[in-house]
Specification:
The protein is an all-alpha fold. It is globular, with a radius of gyration of 16 Å.
């Protein structure tokens, strides 16, 4: 009975694996070298957020199992943020406040990206959003190219069978 109670839930493991896939893609050197993503804490947060949001967008309204996996993906993302804050030396008393701010920022991004992605192929709103977020501390001249990359990744994810994604088998497109 205890073994059944404490065994990992499949959605949780899938969510963690999807998050690791998003992180690997967000760490692609080409994003930083060719597309000018700022190689800073904020730039990486934005790159990770974008890739997690693209996965959440793909899983959106795809049934109960996809909703569980999407929640597990979000949970893995927030756990990673919490761990990163602690590794950066943020004290235990401040972590909660910083996590609340990051959570609010992420939810705002989810809402904004969802609206911008729904307007594709008109990329004007997506380009503006990427310019305000991903390139907030740098040169937004690459925002149109990054919007094209995000749209292509969205198409690549949409072309993949849901069953594969629910097994954390993600094929990201090229940068």
């Amino acid at each position: 009975m205890l073994q059944r109670l404490f065994r990992p839930r499949p959605a949780r493991e899938t969510g963690k694996a999807l998050y690791q896939s998003a992180v690997a893609q967000a760490r692609s050197p080409e994003l930083y070298a060719r597309l000018g993503v700022p190689d800073t804490v904020e730039g990486r947060f934005e790159a990770y957020s974008l890739h997690v949001i693209l996965l959440i967008d793909r899983l959106h309204q795809q049934g109960r199992e996809a909703a569980e996996v999407s929640q597990a993906l979000f949970d893995a993302f927030t756990k990673s943020l919490d761990d990163a804050l602690r590794e950066m030396g943020v004290g235990d008393l401040s972590v909660g406040k910083k996590m609340r701010k990051l959570g609010e920022a992420f939810y705002g991004r989810v809402k904004a990206y969802h609206a911008a992605l729904e307007k594709l192929p008109d990329a004007e709103e997506l380009e503006a959003l990427i310019g305000r977020t991903l390139y907030a501390e740098g040169d937004a001249a690459n925002a149109p190219a990054m919007a094209g990359y995000a749209a292509a990744q969205r198409q690549a994810l949409a072309a993949q069978p849901l069953e594969a994604l629910l097994k954390a088998q993600v094929q990201w497109g090229p940068v």
